[in-house]
Every structure is written in C-alpha cells, then in structure tokens.
Amino acid sequence: MAADRAAPEGADGSPAAAAPIAGSRGSGAERRLALGLLMPALAVIGAMLAVPLALLAFISLKGLKLGNLSQILRADFTLDNYVRILGDPGTWSSLWISILYIVGSSAVAFSLGLATALVINEKFPAQRLFRTLILLPWAVPGITATIAFLWIMQPSFGVLNFVLRTTGLVEGDVNWFGDPSLALVAVIFPTVWKTYPFFTIMLLAALQTIPRDMYEAASIDGANGWRAFRWITWPSIRRYAVVALVFNAMYVFREFDFIYASTRGGPNGATDTIAIRIYNVAFEKFDLAAASALGVLTFVLVAVSVWGFVRWQMQAVQR
Amino acid sequence: MTISQRQRLMSTLRFFLAGIFAVLLLFPIYWMGQTSLLPTSAVLSRAPSLLPDPAASSLSAYQTLLATYPVLTWFGNSAIITAGSALLSALCATLAGYSLSRFSSRTAHGIAFVLLLGRVLPGTLLVLPYFVLFRWAGILDTHVSVILANASMITPFATFMMKNYFDDVPRELDEAAKVDGCSPLAALWFVVLPVAAPGIAATIAFAATASWVDLLFARTLLLTPGHWTMPVGIASLIGEVQTSWNQLMAAGVLSVLPVFAVYWFAQPYLVGGMTSGAVKG
After folding, report:
1. Closest-CA residue in chain B for A45?
2. Which of A138, A207, A237, B240 is deepest in the core (most CB within 10 A)?
3. Is residue A140 part of a domain?
4. What is the CATH number of domain B63-279?
C-alpha cells in the first residue's frame, strides 16, 4: 500500500520511472472521483476564501471609504489607500505591537508548556487525570477566558492584586488593563493560559518518541539533569518545538477575542495589533478601503511566511 | 544518596510541580465558578476568600442573569450555529480528507498550502469582505452567514485531521470492497466510513468546539441582539454589568458547560488529531 500511494512520484523518487504506471491505471474515473470528493470543501473554501480575498483586493484599490457592493464596484481605481496606510505611523506601531505580542506570549507559553510536558512525561500519582485536564483551556471560549482574567486582574477587587498586596510585592492597586505600559502584558496573561497546553501536548508527543535506554546509557556515563536535557532531550524535540512555535505564532497573530473583549486595542493604542487594527479601521472608523489595503498587505506577509514554512517543512521531511 | 532515595525524591518533586501546574491550569475556571456562586454583597471584597464558603453560596447570580438578559436565546442561537457549522465542515472534511488520502499525492502539497493559508489568515481580514458580500446576498444578520464563515475557517484543519485518520485505514479494505463489486463511493460509505467513525466523531467534536467559541464572525455578522450567540452576549455584558461580576462569571460558566461535556468524551481523540494535524500535516 505504501508503494501504491507513492506511485505517481515513483517509489525511488524519480518521476520518469513512475509515469507509465500512473498513466496506465485508468486514472480518468479515479481522478474524477478524487476531484468530486474534493468539490464540497473546495467550494466552501473557494467561495469563502478566494472570492472574499479578490473582493478585498478590489475594495483596497477603490477610492470609496464606505458603501454597498454596487457603489464599490462603480468607484474609481486609486492607490491612495496604500499610500495612506504605508504613510501612517500607526500601521508600523501595530506591526511592532503584533511582534511583541507574539514573541512575549510565545516565550512564556513555550517555557510553561515545556516544563509541564517534562513533568508529566514521567510517572507520578494522578498522572492520567492531569493528562486529561491539560487541554481544558483550549476548549474554553476566548471570551470566557478573557472575562475570567478581567475579573482576576481587576484593579480594586481582583484576586491577583489582592495576592500581590498581601505578599507585599506591590503597594497600591495595579491597573493591568488600563495602564498603557502594562496593557500588553495584561492581554498576554489569558493568551498564555489558553495557548500553553498546545505546547505541552506537542512536546509531550515529541518526548515520547525518545527511547528510555538513551537516558540509561547517559546516566551510566554520568550525564543527568541538565546535561541529559541538553544532549538528549532537546536535540530530539527541537523540530517539534519549532513547528509548535510556528503554529502558535500564526494563532497569536490572528488573535482577536482577548484584545477585543478587554482593551479593544487601547489604552492609547498599547494593544493595537494588526488583526485588531484591521477590525477597528473597518468597523469603528468605517473606512473599509483603508482596512482592505491593510488587509491585503497582511495577506502578502502571511502568504510569504506560510510559503516559506511549507518549503522548509518539505525539505526537512526529505532530509 | 542512593538511587532509590533519589528516585523517591524526584517523584515527590514531580508531584509537587504538577500540583503547581494544576493550580495554574484550573485556577481561572475555579475562580469563575467560585465568584458566580457569591451573593452580590460579597463580590466586591478587598480581601476575597480563596476557598468557597458553602453556607454563603447561592445561585442568585444565575437567577438574576437569566431573568435580566436573553441568555437562553443566545445559548439556543449558539447551539444552532454550532450544529450547522460542525456538520457542514465535517461533511466537507470527510470527503476531501478521503480524496487527499487515497488519490492525489502530487496535488496534495499545493492544496496543503492553500488550506494552511486559509487557516492562518486573520479572521478580521476575512470578515470585512464577508460583511460586504453577505449584505449584497441578503444573508447578513442570519445564522447561515455565521455558519458559512465558521465552516470556511474550520474545514481546512478538519480536512487535515480526516486525511490523517484515513491514512491509518488500510487501503486493502477499499480494494477488497471494490473486488467484491462495490463502486468507489459505496466502498467509502459501507466499508471505510464505519472504520473511520472515531475519527469523524473527533472531527465533529473539534469543529463544534471551534464554532462554539467564535466571537469575531458572530459579533460582526449578527446585528440584532435576538440573533446573538453566547460569546457575543457575554461580550456585550462586559461593559453593562460593570460591578455585577458574579453575573458575568455565571454567564461564563454557562458558556463552558457544553464544551466541557464534549471535551470530556472526545478528549483522547482530540489530542491525537491536534498533534497529528500539526506534526504530520
């Protein structure tokens, strides 16, 4: 069955050798069936991805801020929206905030996820229960996680400030979401809580591919703890870790719920990521054209990144 | 220190660390539940009690919430939209996943790229043309619009999940059915699908969870408060019940109950699906 699946490209990787096989297998009917089965998915994705993206590009080239479809179609073509977006310092500050948000939340979530995975990879009481619970935050709606953290981090009556006051770490009340210098840190809290289990699950799967006897052999050579991690564990899980980090970065980049429900990009634009900015420009300022131009630029950025990632992944698989 | 002493120490240390991680993991949910049971007079406290007080607990926040806001309507809307999105995307994903698993390995990479792209684009970018298109098509402010938007977001990843499940179903099964005179579609329906049933269940569970939690599409495409879903309703409560945190937390608890129920049954399959979709896909 493996040979069958690899047939179109040739089992030995040479397309020429396999070509006659692919041609002789009455592939007409099979190909029609293959395409037919793909149709519903392609229809949904085409109608909801290709058409909207084309429309987005179209709106971004029109000199009309707001209007219905026929008005948009009639308006004149212009590059004005791109000039406005690229000349706006707010665009660049949003890009910077997106980067800070991704790096900050990924670093904490990754460390926490790795630590959890290392602990629950070994035997201890209640291990099974813990493994069942670990993905729980993933199932919690983003809005629900946000209100829970809004309450926990509420300045006057929140339990976090209460603990910080009681332990003497802070004097007064910390205004987590309201202080422009703290708001980005504040939205990272729910983000990390909801994303770190993903790292735990991914890294746990990676850890379980490492043969036990490697550690036993290392232990005989006197390598334990940090040295075992540095020379055995980390090299074995590094590839998984990178994939998990890339996936998480993509998730955080498109994140909407936490920021919209807590700060809406404020205060003073402190949490105004690209994803939030597109939304606010379109639905708060009602400037569809500028939002579309920003959307198209974001699309290009994402498409190039995904293309690079897929290529890198395929090369890594071939190696 | 002998080896067994060392092992016992490590095991204890691990249990202790796992305890800290468990608190971290569960505290926000616990605190939400604990606050939702407080009477309004006890909510705004400078020194909140970390442990629940059974004597002072009451369901009054839930009663007030249900009496003041159309929470049950939001809940019902969420259920309709979730069912529609989950079924539509699971259907598309099952057929497409089977096709990718069995027939086309050459085009699979190209399709994989498109699917991945669809998955990582910010929803805020897509909701903008959706708004314009749906208004033009006359389905803005309907459940159908949100179902279509959710399905388009979920189908790509669900397709990966299903492809991975079908990859684990031996091809000999399809071949044997065909030898017995089944058409390819009949082979899929009568032979392959029953074997892949756990995978389909996991995909439906994944799709249902992903659409239940959606805030962006429902918030933007549903204009009438009577059409809102649970997340949109909760978002609208944030500003409104400025000090009624117990009611807000009660709404939060209601919003997680169904996903926890699904999660409890589907969790083993979800873990497999998530990691395989990410690692192999």
Report:
1. B152
2. A237
3. yes
4. 1.10.3720.10
Q: Measuring CA to CA, how many Å separate B83 from each of B41, B211, B230?
A: 39, 9, 14
Q: Does A79 contact chain B (CB < 8 Å)?
A: no
Q: Which of B49, B128, B236 to mutate to test the interface with A (most CBs of A within 10 A)?
A: B128
Lowest mean per-residue pLDDT among A52-56, B110-114, B163-167, B274-278? B274-278
CA–CA dist B173, B243 (Å, integer): 61
Contact A102, A249 (CB under 8 A): yes
- Summarised one tens digit per residue, pLDDT across range B9-19 is 877 887 788 88
CA distance A12 to A294: 46
Q: Which domain holds residue A291?
A: 82-318
Between A79 and B252, the more confident residue is B252
| Shared domain check, A307 and A231 | yes
Q: Model pTM?
A: 0.83
Taking contacts as CB-CB distances below 8 angstroms, the residues of chain B near A238 are none
Percent of chain A residues topping a pLDDT of 90: 15
Collapsing DSSP to helix, strand or coil, A62 comes out as: strand
pLDDT in tens, A136-176: 888 899 999 999 999 899 888 888 888 888 888 888 888 88
pLDDT(A75) > 90: no
Is residue A10 a part of any domain in this protein? no
Give the separation between CA A189 and CA A257, rounded to whole angstroms: 13
The minimum CA-CA distance between B60 and chain A, rounded to whole Å, is: 19
Within 8 A of B185 by CB-CB distance, chain A residues are: 33
Say which residue the tokens 């605190």 belong to. B31
- pLDDT of B99 higher than 90: no
What does pLDDT average to over chain B? 82
Nearest alpha carbon to residue A296 among A82, A127, A112: A82
Residue B225 in this model has a pLDDT that exceeds 80: yes
Residue position matching structure tokens 């800070």? A100
**A69 and A213 housed in the same domain:** no
Closest Cβ opposite residue A253 in set B100, B122, B159: B122
How many domains would you assign to chain A? 2
Q: What percent of chain B has pLDDT over 70?
A: 87
Residues B201 and B78: their CA atoms lie apart, in Å, by 20
Shortest CB distance from A256 goes to which of B124, B135, B267? B124
